[in-house]
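Before a colleague's protein record goes any further, I have to sign it off. Would you go through it and say whether the fold makes sense for this chain? Take the sequence as given and treat only the tokens as open to question. The record follows directly below this note.
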Amino acid sequence: MNNDRVTYEEIAKARRAPLADFLFSHFPGEFYLDGRNVRNRNNPGFSVAVNVSGYNDFETGAHGNPIDFLMKYKGYTFQRAVRELNAFLCNTIDSSNKLICSRTFAIPANSNGDMSDVYCYLETHAIPVKIATQLFEKGLLYQDTRKNAVFITKESDYCELYGTGPSYYYRCLKTAENRFWMLAAEHKPRIAYICETALEALSLRCIREKETSISIYVSIGGPNAERAIERISSSLYTILAFRDNETGRMYRKIFSDLQSIYPQYETWNEDLLHKRERERN
């Protein structure tokens, strides 16, 4: 029996796979989301509509189905293209039969520069105004019209919302499971610290402020982010910096080959608050 064989059913299914979703998920450095289309960063003429199977290159006139594209532009064999497209469909379709990465990704409306509530919120969590301002100027943080603190990527493909009012509110939105938010290193990064949330990543960065030149501090936004950890750990020495909760224990079990560190208290933010208190005394 030839293990390379694929069935007619698998071929037909792969031809109907949404190419835009596949490219955006598998090649984030090359393709980006622009509204309801995925575009090539190096070829402005290439565009694939989200949830559509075929492609068209308006500069060259080339067109075809997802299998054709992966064979012609990515060097896949026919069998590999069919298998990976089918695997992608299996991994990204939920119970409602809709592609997870094709759902509408709506960025919360910006409050047009007002950061007063965000500054106050972060200050109560021992995050200096200077750092919050730097994040705002770099496009990594803003205050939305509901006064939430919004930690967002430059590509606008991932964000975390924190309520700044008296009631607890947290929400994470991302276009694909391998997306994440991070604080970049000052120089070429060598180490990645992965946390569960942006506030935890920011707190750890403040605690380990002497290491910021070579380290990045990452938030994956909670569960269902294995692909984000795989993406990071494939290129950087990675340290899991989760707290000792259900999510943290799950990731430590899955990625048992990666080094782990724990906060002294329940969270990294609690560690930071105690650190600031010691410095004042």
